[in-house]
Write a structure and sequence with these properties.
heterodimer; A: mainly alpha; two-stranded antiparallel sheet; B: mainly alpha; Helix Hairpins; about 75% helix
């Protein structure tokens, strides 16, 4: 395969970042926006072409005789060579998940580029300050995210992992004159950086024992006589696996080193993907412009943690303990975030908690995936949900952006009854809600159903748990929907225009993403993305997913979702007293949910009281009084001593002579004594 | 009675001590200069005496003494010039009141 197109996919966004960053202020706002959008559009075409080639060309470098998809290294250049073994390479790896992510990232990024042309200006059409900078940062983010997903080794992934963190920081803090945005960006950066510490230690541990950074060597699929599963890559994988399968494998504190490394790497994923207890940055990250929330904090960057686990999935399979940890963390996070989302007032915060909950679904799905059950259905379901979730959550965020733009507030207590004023946004939002609630035939139904089936195959307990969370999801999304578009008639404040649909640059992405949310569920993912590249279906047509449904699971999840929607309809369609009655029935639960279970306060307590109070303050005291004190003492002693001996220089020449004489006589006398 | 080196060295020592004493105690700068000359001449005597008694066949000590006398003359001229200038500036050549150059 030609290397030009893959290189261009990475080079164009990087070039746009440098170009717009350096010369953006010299050109008009409109030109900068169009340039950025056109650049992203080119990348979109190239990425679609690459993904199409990978999935459908049938070339024998991408797919073998048995119909299994292979990993293909487009290029892999040595970048830094420290020693013979410690070599860091930069490259471009094509495999099912990276090709799928190329499509997701470029689609959402292009939609957001287009949408921002309308969003980043006020009602009079005046562009916001720093519009060109915004596009430069969007390009930087797209570059970093694309580099992350195509990374053929874990170190390149780490580099781009930090780059997406940095661009997320820059974009959250885009309104840098607003103190809340500045502190939100710092919070996001610090929390994810803390998690990345674990990631780095995990990488170093893993590569120390295996001697390689490369995914192809680390994760090629094990065989061990499993029916219907065969090896995809044979490299040094046997050697790598031998290190850990060995009974004398190194252990640390009772767990094998591999478990430690995988859990630490998962910690990095927890930070990026906002798993509890490292989720606190994501709701605050909503301080950034809404298109940024759609791109970074809903569709692409926050699923990097899921992507990381999926990347290393064959390694995780060797340590089921690590997978169990992932399931528990994911399931608890999913329930927690769904409960909190039921009480929030800020539309973007509801969506943020919904994102946390949905990412947790993907994590759980990866955690319950086992090759024995439907060829690792959970893995496929997780990637499928990643794909569909990116589409409908970006859609919901962009709708939220349109609403915020029209109303001028994030708070949906000021929205109510907008269905007649903004019909396109209303329909798009409804489609997004149906998709996330899991109503057939919208995208979320199929992916969520696969996840629940995978949970069912693993353990009945987690199946019931996740079904309950899915019901909660439907409930809070429709609560949001009814409160925004129904509840009571909209009252436009005096002196304001009535809210209306937005210009075409903002509406077109909504329409496109709505269509995608309707049909994405029919994509036969089982044949495109599986953990070992082995296709799940013999033949494929448009209704493959529909035919493959396990109706016992699907009908239950549909019933749960419909019941939740029904409950939301009863409670929130018309203004009534039921919600406040329910709140008063369980005041403690409501308060805890409303305050997000006091996680922020807990962090404040730990950082301010315990870390600052018990560790930092004594250290500061030690620094100020002991270390600085020693240096100050030297200076003071020198100063005092010079004050004391200063009068000796009296200006009286005869005194000097006298000192000299006495000194000379003393020296002479001492010398004489010594000689004698 | 034979005249030995000690007959020269003792008066030279007395002269030198007088010079030191005068240099430290006199207030007048001219007097200090005279004391300085006393010390210098005491040293010159020592040169000549040691040359005469230890190495009578050589003349280095004599030459060095003549050389020192010439340098001393120049140095005295310089010192007197400085003293005159100080007197012009301060109307005073009392060394104890000239104590501006201190910390």
């Amino acid at each position: 395969m030609d290397v030009t197109i893959p290189i261009l996919i990475l080079a164009i966004p990087l070039f746009m970042f440098v170009f717009l960053g350096l010369t953006g202020m010299k050109m008009s706002h409109k030109v900068a926006g169009i340039l950025g959008t056109c650049g992203m559009g080119t990348v979109l075409v190239l990425a679609y072409y690459t993904a199409f080639q990978y999935f459908f060309s049938g070339a024998d470098i991408f797919i073998n005789g048995a119909g299994e998809r292979l990993q293909y290294l487009v290029f892999d250049q040595t970048w830094l060579q420290f020693t013979e073994n410690l070599v860091i390479k930069l490259g471009f790896l094509l495999d099912p998940i990276s090709a799928m992510m190329l499509v997701v990232i470029t689609t959402i990024s292009f939609m957001v580029h287009l949408y921002s042309m309308g969003y980043m200006r006020d009602h009079h059409g005046v562009y916001e300050h720093g519009f060109q900078r915004f596009y430069a940062f969007l390009s930087l983010f797209s570059f970093s995210m694309l580099g992350l997903v195509v990374a053929p080794n874990i170190f390149q992934m780490y580099i781009f992992w930090e780059l997406v963190g940095a661009s997320s920081y820059l974009l959250i803090g885009f309104y840098y004159t607003k103190p809340s945005a500045v502190s939100a960006s710092k919070k996001a950066f610090i929390v994810t950086r803390f998690a990345d510490l674990g990631f780095l230690i995990g990488i170093l541990t893993l590569s120390w024992y295996t001697g390689t950074f490369n995914f192809t060597e680390l994760t090629s699929i094990p065989v061990e006589g499993m029916a219907g599963v065969s090896q995809v890559n044979i490299g040094t994988a046997e050697y790598v696996r031998g290190i850990f399968a060995n009974s004398a494998a190194p252990t640390f504190m009772g767990a094998s080193v591999l478990t430690w490394a995988l859990v630490l790497i998962f910690m990095g994923g927890m930070g990026k993907s906002a798993m509890m207890p490292l989720h606190i940055w994501l709701p605050d990250a909503m301080e950034g412009p809404t298109p940024v929330s759609a791109l970074i904090h809903a569709a692409t960057m926050v699923v990097a943690g899921v992507y990381l686990v999926a990347r290393l999935f064959p390694l995780y399979l060797m340590e089921e303990a690590a997978l169990d940890i992932i399931v528990v963390v994911g399931a608890v996070t999913a329930l927690y975030a769904a409960m909190v989302a039921c009480t929030q007032l800020d539309i973007k915060r509801v969506l943020a908690f919904s994102t946390i909950s949905q990412i947790a679904f993907m994590m759980v799905s990866l955690g319950v995936a086992r090759p024995e059950f439907h060829h690792g259905l959970g893995y496929m379901a997780s990637m499928f949900h990643l794909f569909t979730h990116a589409m409908f959550k970006a859609l919901l965020f962009l709708c939220a952006g349109a609403l915020i733009h029209a109303i001028g507030s994030n708070n949906y207590t000021e929205m109510h009854g907008l269905r007649k004023h903004m019909p396109i946004t209303h329909v798009a939002f409804l489609i997004g809600c149906l998709a996330i609630a899991g109503i057939i035939p919208f995208a979320g139904f199929f992916s969520k159903d696969e996840i629940l089936t995978a949970c069912f195959g693993h353990s009945i307990f987690w199946y019931i748990w996740m079904s309950a969370v899915a019901g909660l999801t439907a409930f809070y999304m429709f609560r949001l929907y009814y409160l925004i578009f129904w509840w009571k008639e909209h009252k436009t404040p005096e002196g304001h225009h009535a809210p209306h649909d937005q210009p075409w640059t903002m509406t077109l992405p909504l329409v496109i993403l709505s269509v995608v949310s309707c049909v994405a569920g029919f994509v036969p993912f089982g044949n495109l993305v599986t953990w070992n590249g082995h296709p799940m279906f013999e033949s494929v047509d448009f209704f493959t997913n529909l035919k493959a449904l396990d109706w016992s699971v699907a009908s239950i999840s549909l019933l749960v979702a419909l019941a939740a929607i029904g409950l939301a309809t009863v409670m929130y369609r018309k203004e009534n007293a039921l919600p406040s009655k329910m709140r008063n029935a369980l005041p403690a639960l409501w308060t805890w949910c409303f305050h997000r279970f006091y996680f922020d306060e807990l962090y404040m307590f730990i950082t301010h009281r315990i870390i600052f109070g018990c560790i930092s303050r004594p250290l500061a005291w030690f620094d100020r009084h002991v270390i600085d004190g020693t240096m100050d003492a030297f200076a003071t002693i020198t100063n005092k001593a010079s004050e004391v001996i200063k009068p000796l220089q009296s200006g009286q020449i005869q005194m000097y002579v006298w000192y000299y004489l006495v000194g000379a006589l003393l020296l002479g006398g001492i010398t004489a004594l010594c000689v004698i | 009675m034979e005249i030995t080196a000690i007959y020269y060295l003792v008066p030279a020592l007395v002269m030198f001590c007088c010079g030191v004493y005068g240099f430290i105690t006199r207030k007048n700068m001219i007097a200090m200069l005279i004391s300085l000359e006393l010390m210098l001449n005491a040293v010159d005597i020592n040169f000549v005496v040691f040359n005469r008694y230890l190495y009578p066949e050589q003349m280095e000590g004599m030459f060095f003494t003549l050389f020192a006398i010439a340098i001393a003359a120049a140095e005295t001229a310089l010192a007197i010039a400085i003293i005159i200038n100080i007197f012009r500036a301060a109307k005073n050549i009392d060394v104890r009141s000239l104590n501006e150059m201190k910390f």
